[in-house]
């Protein structure tokens, strides 16, 4: 099943709809959170800017609510609605028992579609009088090819030439099966991509990344540069998956340095780890909103005094590493700045660097690492260490 083929809410059949993948590792809280995020809209229409803010706040609320509150909210919202919910890939009777408790019986003609690979589970989920159970017939070779190519490349004719033969061979193997092998058909379940290298010659990889709707960790490296169009495509994909990401690493080279790292509407505000290897003239404005950020590494940026002040206001920042990242000769830690910072590592700067820490700043700092890498770089002074409670200093 695909959600696009079941988009019936727009036609008036249902007032709301949601599609969620269950899988073997059944996580009821995560499923309730996902469904609530799809079903429950914002309140009255407001200005576009405030509308985005409310949406972000509501999403953050779903992340921290306990299972009982999520369930009560979902049940209350659906009480007077005609809804469609698709539960894809259920593996056990207990998964269905645990979930159906949160759905109201309102007799408004709502529909729940369950897909499973196990016949006994299908029978268990459809034992009531008006329930129906269907066993899907195996795919023929043409259908297998359409499904395989469409799932991987977005369309049947989207396969790169260098992968054509192996893709044809694999799609033939898929004929006769009702679902694709886990390594391909379930690509959307991938949560970590250790390193993906992209360039103008391999820009098709950007669209593939956009299909990984559960991706939590992504590391991108642009080895031979990206033109403006492909760079904007990459930013659009990051925006599309912004609510998934917890860790993001973007490493660019000289060709891409001049391009901005700005998002038009949905920056990845739930990041816990961020690495930027770019020659940024200005720190992106959305960094100031990363309230969950724990680790920040900046390489090749040109931080100014204002950027440093923004970083110090990040409430949960634990580790800050700055490699060749200074466009200023001063690092001033203000009162109450960086309240949870425990590691500060600075390597490489031009000219004499002067560090000043005011009373109340970086009270949890354990380790300060300063490495002079440029010939013209010197450490002029480090003032205010007496205000730090416990830390190790390395030069």
Automatic annotation (TrEMBL):
NB-ARC domain location: 11-148
Biological process, per Gene Ontology: defense response
Keywords, sorted A to Z: Repeat
Residue intervals of the Disease resistance R13L4/SHOC-2-like LRR domain: 177-378
Gene3D superfamilies: P-loop containing nucleotide triphosphate hydrolases (3.40.50.300), Ribonuclease Inhibitor (3.80.10.10)
Claim: Cytoplasm is one of the keywords in the record: no
Alphabetical list of SUPFAM superfamilies matching this protein: P-loop containing nucleoside triphosphate hydrolases, RNI-like
GO molecular function: ADP binding
PANTHER family (UniProt xref): NB-ARC DOMAIN-CONTAINING PROTEIN, PLANT BROAD-SPECTRUM MILDEW RESISTANCE PROTEIN RPW8
Protein name per UniProt: Uncharacterized protein
Organism whose genome encodes this protein: Dichanthelium oligosanthes
